[in-house]
Amino acid sequence: MAVQSDVQVASAAGAAALTRRSRARKRNGLAAYLFLAPYLVLFLGFIAAPAIFGIWISLHDYDFALFYKPWVGLANYTSLFTPGSRDFGNFWQAMKATGIFTLFSVPCLVVVPLLIALLLNRKFPGRTFFRAVFFLPYVLGVAVIGLLFRYMLDPNVGVVNYFLGANIPWTTDLPWVWVSLVGMTVWWTLGFNALIYLAGLTDISPELYEAADMDGANRWQQFANVTLPGLRQVMVFVVTTTILASANMFGQYFILTKGAPGTATRTIIGYIADEGLRSFRMGAAAAMSYVFAIVLLLVSLVNFKVFNRGDAS
Amino acid sequence: MGKLLFGLTLGILTLVFLGPLLWMFLTSFKTAEGATSIPPVWIPNPATTAGYAPLANTSSETPVIRWFINSLLAGAANAVLVTATAALAAYALARLDFPGKKFMFGMIISTLFIPSFLFLIPNYIIINSLGWLDTLWAVIVPSAGGAFGVFFLRQFFLSLPAELEEAAAIDGANLWSTFFRVVLPLSKPGLATLLVLSFLTNYNDFLWPVFVLFSPGNLTLPAGLSILQGAFTINYPVVMAGAVIASVPAIILFVVAQRSIVEGVSRSGLKG
User: Do A48 and B146 form a contact (C-beta atoms < 8 A)?
Assistant: First the structure.
């Protein structure tokens, strides 16, 4: 709108004003690029360039320390889909591990934080304090949380087994490793989603609840007909970011289970890092990153489709 | 829900969230035997700082005190770099008019949706060719290319009234002094939020430092803690002391800047 009225003013004021203005705009343009320059150097160097360079790497048998980096075409990609190839078994095992983790952690991280946000949305003394308490684990890093849980989940001396009076191999055996990894992640990151829900809840107009009250809606009906529809946008955001965060899981398994049993809990990020940055099979690892990125893109598209279909009905 | 039930739920939840953190803190003051006693005891008896002693030894394989300093340095440097470069760029994108603006904004914002693991392998090679492998530069600089800060501050600048800047321009102030004397002072809350969020993200980052840093003296805390665990496998007070040291700056920052963090997180959620 501002631009439009600028143009009108300029045309009314005549040619002299117009040249003055366009000269000012050119100066402005140079200044704008000077303002942008420092960030653009970082952006081009560490975001734009690597995004494209990665494709180049994935088309080679690429070890950064070796001079000879032979071109292999799409071989790094096709081998991921060829049973019996070097990466096939491990890659799909890691995909499966990532899938299992995502499948179990996302529902917990969508539902539990919502319940906590509903609890915190009531008016009571000390609300800010409790909000801080639930968010506190999230400001700590995965390394801290991982060490703490490894101690608490120690099969012999851990407090968890002591309180349960059990002898469960939380960090070494299936299916317990998944319970540990999902439980720890939910405890650690639930505060983040709860905060986002809470912001969404405060944005729902109180008049809607008053209207529902007058229509004689009970608490549950209010939740189903006012709260949930009001949280739609927020819910899409929470589901999408939680799926992406879970699919990117790395630190939790790296510290808590180290992949155990065997490599059953090693996620796809773990496998990419192991192959690319430990064995320096960078071409193969880069190819895996692109394949996984495309899988995530498809998952996101399905996710949006599902939410939009709900919108239409 | 009845008042009693509500209070009880809050109480149990608080215990679930604070209990483990308290357990970590108390364990760091126990003896190795005290930390593994069955039944477990909450209060260290005898209380000792022996768990903290090996952490101060800078010539060992686990110089936690060095990692602590490295982490604070890297976090602070990264936060300043992110905020300074993002503020300049965001101002150009929010207020200035220049050819290619739409394209540039679209290009920067679209990278917000690229998952960060795509950069892992190529950035490792780029860092290596810059000679930054196993140096703090590797954890300070690359993540400042991310688009979040630019996006966040652009939104903030757009929410400021443009009249003040126009008034400054009429008074003859050039762009630079308008930006410095008018826009930045008005944007203190936004700048503070970005500083704090960038510091915390960098301070807690795990995947990248684990692979790009390897000399014992060059690690950041998160990368170091996973080594500490291997070096003191069953000596839990030492491991928990390391975890406590890593937690302290993050918790202090959270207590001091709770409003910024909460607002920043809530806003990034709604606008994202």
Answer: no
